[in-house]
Structures are given as C-alpha cells and as structure tokens.
Design goal:
The chain has one helix and six strands, in the order H-E-E-E-E-E-E. By secondary structure, the protein is mostly beta strands. It has one domain: Leucine-rich repeat, LRR (right-handed beta-alpha superhelix), CATH 3.80.10. It starts with a helix and ends with a strand. Mean pLDDT is 91; it is low at 1-6. It comes from Sulfitobacter sediminilitoris. InterPro entries: LRR_dom_sf.
Length: 131
C-alpha cells in the first residue's frame, strides 16, 4: 500500500496550511500532519484512514470532522486540547475518555457510533453532544 507521501506528495509541502478538507480522496495515512503545525481545521472523510497517531502533532486543531473513518484507536485525540468542535459520526469509537482534556470542546457529534458512556466528558462546561 503506498504512503500518503507517494499518493499525495503535495500535502507534505503545505506547511503553512490552516484548513484541509479531504473526501474519498484515497487518503490512507496522515503522515503529513506533523509538517502542518498551523493546521486548525481538518475535515477527514476518508474510510481508508485507520491510524490516527499523527494527529498527536496537530496541537493547534480546533475543528476536526472524521466522519466514517475506519480508525479504531482514538487515543491520539487526547493531545488535542485546543479542540472546540469534534465530529466522530459513523466511526468505530466506543470510548471517549481520550477527549477528557478538551476543556474548550463545545460540540461533539457521535451519531452512528457505539458510544454509550459520556461520563468522561461530563465535566466540560457547555458541551453539546449530538447522538
């Protein structure tokens, strides 16, 4: 399977990008994310993405929509403490405890997920959760 640097070589050169939207683009990995320190908004609608670990480096993200991604491990999201809006609709997420440190989170979309326990984010003031 080719890496993103092979299938989407321009992405690793867009180092000052603040907004990126992908949709059914054949994107399979997020290895370009560490090269985008200014990235604030990411729309990632690609079922091919399974490894979210590069998102650990996206500390400036405030908006993330990952609808329908095939990822199973969402622990990388724990470092995204600037997050304000997070869309996880139609993903395999079952445990939202990695989101507990997102104190600025105001909107969380969980439609079509198996999440049943919202206690990990119950302490976040003003959080609107949509199932």
């Amino acid at each position: 399977m080719p890496s993103t640097s092979q299938t989407h070589p321009a992405l690793s050169h867009l180092t000052t990008l603040t907004f990126l939207a992908t949709s059914a683009s054949g994107l399979r990995d997020l290895s370009f994310i560490p090269a985008m320190p200014d990235l604030k908004k990411l729309i990632l609608l690609s079922e091919g993405v399974t490894d979210l670990s590069p998102l650990r480096h996206a500390s400036n993200l405030t908006f993330l929509n990952m609808q329908g991604t095939a990822a199973i491990d969402f622990s990388a999201l724990s470092s995204l403490t600037q997050m304000k809006e997070l869309g996880l609709n139609g993903t395999q997420v079952t445990d939202i405890s990695p989101l507990a440190a997102m104190m600025d989170l105001s909107y969380l979309a969980l439609t079509g997920t198996a999440v049943s326990d919202t206690d990990p984010v119950a302490h976040i003031e003003g959080l609107n959760i949509r199932f």
